[in-house]
């Protein structure tokens, strides 16, 4: 479930997410603020911070390590509680036509709390995570 509010060039949103597939238990609460600007008929940009809280069950499914998983992986057993992640995301979109557009996106996020302390992160991963992507969209 997501709610959003527009104010001038800013979009504020809050969402509660919980998978219905059964592969992950728990929930996440996601808060975002996005500054948006259309520079021309074809160019559009957005930039903004985000904050995510994950419940104990969600965090355990993603960052916990059972005794069986520990024996297989060599990582220490770990049973985390909830955590927060904060970050910054930006995107730049170019409209090729009324239907087609290309978007480049980049962001960085920081894991905190029990997720940051998980052996999955501290031994083989990174608490600071960056990402980039490029995709095409078609509007019906």
UniProtKB/TrEMBL annotation:
Coiled coil: none
Pfam families: MipA
Chief location category: membrane
Stated name of the protein: MltA-interacting protein MipA
A GO cellular-component term linked to this record: cell outer membrane
Keywords: Cell outer membrane, Membrane, Signal
Family (UniProt): Belongs to the MipA/OmpV family.
Localization (cell): Cell outer membrane
PANTHER family assigned: MLTA-INTERACTING PROTEIN-RELATED
């Amino acid at each position: 479930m997501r709610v959003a509010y527009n104010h001038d060039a800013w979009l504020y949103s809050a969402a509660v997410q919980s998978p219905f597939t059964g592969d992950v238990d728990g929930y996440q609460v996601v808060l975002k603020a996005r500054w948006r600007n259309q520079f021309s008929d074809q160019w559009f940009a957005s930039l903004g911070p985000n904050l995510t809280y994950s419940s104990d069950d969600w965090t355990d499914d993603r960052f916990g390590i059972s005794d069986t998983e520990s024996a297989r992986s060599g990582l220490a057993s770990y049973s985390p509680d909830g955590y927060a992640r904060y970050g910054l995301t930006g995107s730049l979109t170019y409209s090729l036509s009324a239907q087609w557009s290309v978007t480049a996106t980049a962001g960085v996020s920081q894991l905190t709390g029990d997720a940051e302390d998980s052996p999955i992160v501290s031994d083989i991963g990174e608490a600071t995570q960056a990402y980039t992507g490029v995709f095409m969209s078609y509007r019906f």
